[in-house]
Amino acid sequence: MSATRCWLVKSEPGAFSFDDLLAAPKKTTSWNGVRNYLARNYMRDLMKKGDKVLFYHSNADPTAIVGVAEVAREAYPDPEQFDPKSEYHDPKSKKDAPTWMMVDIKAVKKLKHPLTLAELKGTKGLEKMVLLQKGSRLSVQPVTPAEFDVIVAAASTARSPAR
DNA sequence: GCCAACGTTGGC
DNA sequence: GCCAACGTTGGC
Questions:
Q1: Any idea where the domains of chain A sit in the sequence?
Q2: How many Å is the maximal CA-CA distance in chain A?
Q3: How far is the CA of A94 from the C1' of C11 (A)?
Q4: Contacts of A36 (CB under 8 A, 6+ apart)
């Protein structure tokens, strides 16, 4: 069997939080608006139905991985690229050869203990995680299965003592 | 093809 | 609000 890939997506909770995803119909949303080629390539070429997805809150207080989701539908064209009124409109994209693709993401579970960026930085086994690399801005990024397991395990055990 | 200027992301 | 890092654009 081919190994299930793991991913991490970023969202600003003020725009779309994990709770928003849990409240969405079928706990599912289309991951539209990604306008970065590398992130697009991951979605278009590599994300498969059932792949696990970590949900990260950026520009938040605190910034943290807050939930687990999965790929519910594989890549299809993002309709907003063709909508002149959308902030994601791309006049250069052609209908018969769409530039931008998206997948559907479905919530699986909220983490009992969100893992903050600070905690992630102090967790053994995550030293090479893309999210923790300096200047890493990718909104859709790969996570190794080992990293995924470390994160889920850390989120299910007691929160690090605050005092 | 190079690279400077600009816009955006995202932590702090 | 600041600023470092990155991606994209466009002149040449």
A1: 6-156
A2: 58
A3: 27
A4: A138, A139, A140
Q: CA–CA separation, A70 vs A29, rounded Å?
A: 11
Give strand letter and number of the nucleotide nearest A118 (CA to C1'): B11
The 10s digit of each residue's pLDDT in A104-158 is 999 999 999 999 999 999 999 999 999 999 889 999 999 999 999 999 999 987 5
Residue A142: exposure state from Cβ atoms within 10 A (0-12, 13-18, ≥19): middle
Cβ < 7 Å from nucleic strand B: A 10, 12, 58-60, 63, 117-118, 137-139
Q: What is the pLDDT of residues A36-51, one digit of tens each?
A: 999 999 999 999 999 9
The nucleotides of chain C lying under 7 Å from a protein CB are 4-8
Pick the CATH number of A6-156 from 3.10.590.10, 3.30.1330.10, 3.40.50.300, 3.40.50.880: 3.10.590.10
